[in-house]
Amino acid sequence: MHCGDHGPAIKMAMSILVRMAEVSGAKELIDITGAHIDSTIYIGDAGLEFAERLAGLGAKVSVPTTLNVSGLDEHHWKEWAVPSEWARQAQRQMVAYQSMGTIPTWTCAPYQTEMRPKFGQQIAWGESNAIVFANSVIGARTERYPDMFDICCAITGRAAAIGLHLAENRAGGLLLQLKDIPDALQQSDDFYPVLGHFIGKVSLDRIPVIAGMSVFPNEDQLKALGAAASSSGGVALFHIVGVTPEAPTLESAFQGDQPQKTIDVTMELLRQSRSELTHTDSEDLDMVVLGSPHFSLAEFRQLAPLVAGKQKHSNVKFLVTSSRAMTQLAKQAGFLDPLQTFGAQLTVDTCILATPMLPAEIKYLMTNSAKFAYYTPGLLARKIAFGSLKDCVDSAVEGKIVRDDSLWRK
Amino acid sequence: MEKISIKGNPIITGIAKGIALVSNEPLSFWGGYDWKTGEIIDRRHPLSGEIAKDRILAIPFTRGSSTTTSVLLESVRAKTSPAAIITTATDFFFALASVVADELYAKPIPLVAISESDFARLHTGDQIEIDQQGMIEVRRLISSLT
């Protein structure tokens, strides 16, 4: 297939794929059944030139392919500080990827769409949080793929037989044993991003296995854990014994081998991890941001009663980022009405990290997402505080950062 | 002036010369590298505030975002990229950016992988030269070469 008889776009994609297969020592290529494209995020003109080069050569994807967040909320960007030149370039990038026969999901949570892969399927996904979710929670198989390689796989329908595509590379390496973590904390939504942030930092290039969990976390909690671990670290797969599909037992998580290393996860370590997610000394608050990864229908269902009958403080903005699909379902379910009364705003297709939407006067942010918390100081040069979903709502009402620490105390 | 040689594995071949910028801490270029200036902007990273443009950047591997590749590619186009990158294993993200930079601009970034023990011998400020075969020549003004 590595020749020109399938057209120039396939030739370019295959040439990149084959070079990368050689670089990574792959013995062969494999077929994939789906792809998710992270390169939709507009960063600058090089990424745009790459997308338009492929589109101009007539590139078409050969497997069902979802699109990650773009650099623009096409319908609401004018309400924010997005420069029109940026909007024009980001839109060109959207058009280029859409022209390739892709599915315009515009979400970093493609596992919340009908295109969600199934256990054991070979896929090629970009977007760190989506990769770790697909591997860990679903048991589909993707290597940790970067921008631009994802589209090469989608066009050719192939990937290199490396890394997490292969069963033997999916065994755990690092055992994380939860020690005396109260059930009440394990049930709390802010436990998971804090645990994930810790795991990302200690895992290095090993696959982490979490043991000793006494509750069965829901999908949004696992989403938060994975997003955190793939921000503070390079985690592309984790196992939780008794929870995730490749870890019914400790033995199966390690494929019969012994852990290379064991770490006891104590309250002390978690308190430290939680404090690292806050990057401000002030109680000041200008804006609450939720939805990294994109808010799910279940999260809208959880948020609606928390804000019902309340109104946010007039000095604070309250933003939820999600996909068009989840937002539409939430609207049909009646979850958006209390948000509107509360004074919340919605952004779809993108998020605060992927589009320059924040006006200069917004300086102090708060979030329930470890991923937002991790990237905000570098990407946005703003102060950020981390708290639970309820802390975020309470703070928006008070007009300053307030947090309930009762579950975290000694 | 003392001198050591390290035999590396050339992931993407090329020659490069520059002053080393070294950290044991993995880095995401998305949220970690400003492609407009070449500054390291991950405020939690030990190299925060350093300019990596035209330096020989040595970090063990990438962490975090898939967008690291896009940011590195932008830096090649904007001429703010490191002169070469040294890692402890093949880093797929850096390699892909370098391959696409070759495809689009005929400007691949030389990438060399070395062992963890050799990596520990590198220090910020070393004068480094990399050749086509992945041989790394390290020169340091004040002794203490290990």
Describe this structure in words.
The complex is a heterodimer of chains A (about 400) and B (about 150). Chain A folds into three domains: about 5-165, Aconitase, domain 3 (2-Layer Sandwich), CATH 3.30.499; about 170-275, no CATH class; about 285-405, Aconitase, domain 3 (2-Layer Sandwich). Chain A is α/β, with parallel strands linked by helices. Chain A has helices spanning about 10-25, 45-55, 85-100, 130-140, 150-155, 185, 190-205, 220-230, 250-255, 265-275, 295-305, 325-330, 335-340, 370-380, 390-400, and strands at about 30, 35, 65, 125, 160, 175-180, 210, 240, 260-265, 285-295, 315-320, 345-350, 365, 385. Chain A is globular and about 65 Å long. In chain A, the strands form four sheets. Chain A has a five-stranded parallel beta sheet, sandwiched between helices. A four-stranded parallel beta sheet of chain A has the order 8-7-6-9. Chain A is built from 15 helices and 14 strands. By secondary structure, chain B is α/β, with parallel strands linked by helices. Chain B has one domain: 3-Layer(bba) Sandwich (Glucose Oxidase, domain 1), CATH 3.50.30. Chain B is about 20% helix and about 30% strand. Chain B has three helices and ten strands, in the order E-E-E-E-E-E-H-E-H-E-H-E-E. Chain B has an eight-stranded mixed beta sheet. Chain B is globular and about 40 Å long. At the A-B interface, helix 1, helix 2, helix 8 and helix 14 of A face helix 1 and helix 2 of B.
Q: What are the salient characteristics of this protein?
A:
heterodimer; A: 410 residues; alpha/beta; Aconitase, domain 3; 3 domains; five-stranded parallel beta sheet; four-stranded parallel beta sheet; 14 strands; 14% strand; B: 146 residues; Glucose Oxidase, domain 1; eight-stranded mixed beta sheet; two-stranded antiparallel ribbon; 3 helices; 10 strands; 28% strand; globular
